[in-house]
Write a structure and sequence with these properties.
The chain is an alpha/beta fold. The chain contains 21 helices and 9 strands.
Length: about 675
Amino acid sequence: MEMDPFALTVAAEEEVTTKPALKQQRRKKKKIEMDNEGRGQASMYNTLNQQYEEKVRPCIDLIDSLRSLGVEKDLALPAIAVIGDQSSGKSSVLEALSGVALPRGSGIVTRCPLELKMKRTTEGETWQGTITYTAKKQPEGHFNHHVDIEDPSYVEHLIEQAQNDMAGHGAGISEDLISLSIASPDVPDLTLIDLPGIARVAVKGQPQDIGEKIKKMIQKFIKKQETISLVVVPSNVDIATTEALKMAQEVDPDGERTLGILTKPDLVDKGTEATVVKTVHNELIPLKKGYMIVKCRGQQEILDRVSLSEAMEREKTFFEEHAYFSILHDEGQATIPKLAEKLTLELVNHIQRSLPQLEEQIEKKLNNTQSRLTKCGAGPPQDPSDKVYFFIDKVTAFTQDAISLAAGDELQCEANLNIFSKLRDEFGKWKNLLDSNGSNFSRKIEREVATYEQKYRGRELPGFINYKTFETMMKEQIKQLEEPAVTKLKDVADLVKNGFIQLAQCSFVGFPNLFKAAKAKIELIRKEKEVTAEAMLRTQFKMELVVYTQDSTYSRSLKRKREDEGSVPGFKTVNYQDNEATLKEMMLHLKSYYLIASQRLADQIPLVIKYLMLQESAAQLQREMLQMIQKKENVELMLDEDFRVNTERKTLQSRLNRLRKARVLLTEFEYGQLS
């Protein structure tokens, strides 16, 4: 295939006039201009071609290098994906572009995505090719193939073999890429990804859902914003009904990254040629990237062994002499060389637009990967003595974090734990319960104090406070707070236990036995401390049933309560001439003392819970974990690493290496563009 370097420098075609005479005149003028240039202008062509190469080749090499690193597993790279219904002529287009025969036949021929990397070399250089793929083989697992190809006639067979290795013999498909690299003076600088043809009906040997599987594979590629969809459609079918174009429109409704290719123009029915021209002119189903039309080898030409170069000459003659399609040739919208030119420029422009986002993607992925790798830890050393030190360091770091957690200090482990904020919430709820209980008590006093006075009052005259009434009512009220306090203990015990377990998960990632040992100790300590704390709480409430406070404290509380109640509109000033005054005085005393008792409980209950369930639990956990270090036989068992974590670490390390190399490639590319 010979590419015209002069044509490659044309940025855009002039708008084509609709007047036939002017069209013919323009075509003749263009031909004369090209003939006049001739070989005398060869040096200028070489200069232009060199400028073109300097712009195009580095961009394509960059993406090909990134893809060869495997970065496409992590990032969406700019690409052109070739899609089409079965028998749309897709393989013929790729053959014409690459200059090599690809697998042909009935049914699904392309069973794996084929990455076709073409590199144009200088005239006189020999053809070179390589095919690379990773196949699955049971029970050995994966094995990599890399074959250097000396003869282009071997390509078809090698692709078939690769598909059989990857997708099995028959009609199976695989989403893994086969990479075919071709270097030749007769190919464009271009990389395409050929996807399986869309099957409408399963044929013999194919699963019934083969069509849906292929659609899902295609959608996986073309839904990426970084992918240009090259939709191949026969000229002799209604383009609006083709499945390939429908799929492209679903993911690219505005046609921003879709390019249409019409094939088989020689099969167009007479009388429908104008429709084909309108389609290529972007008048029927508009696409921002427009349409091209090509004529590749037909089946008979393949049987007659017509070479690809001869087929290209026939294509050129066909369009030049066609009554309707010659206008498309004049406009640069027909023939394989023009398609190659357009695709190359589209890909390069697409790559250049995508580079800033690609660089941003790499940085985000690098940070995310490094963070996940850090969580996986470094893994245990192989040397037995080093393992002991590793084990000691692991356990010591965990116990130090446990003490720091109990003290509210910063943790070495990256677990996002702030247990004190949760404790504040829980103890705040306890305080709210005491306040709410006090409000209910006040209402209860107003309803029931008269009943208590009648029940317990003895020989006292009106105006004297009956202490038994006061004490009985206060004890009953405080007794009601005991079970809520024990419930709060259990809630906090769960909270602290879960915090320690979360800390152990963070500290012992990848070491299930070590984590299980720590978890068992945490749960046992929780039970022991909870029993002790509950006993202390119940003792505290027994002490609270002994009504007591300092005289000065009580006097201040009573005075403040009396002032507060006296300032309430409608509150009757106390006097000692009737029973009502006695009852009001009793209410003041009850409220005053409850305020003192509730303030005591608001602090004392959290102190007991926090001390035993947090501080004491952390200290005991530290002691018991450090005791494990003394037993040397624990080392091998405790450092038995989780296979999944080991695998994830290797995967993340491999990804980190890929992304770092990708960043270097991008940096070198940008530096090369500036220099």
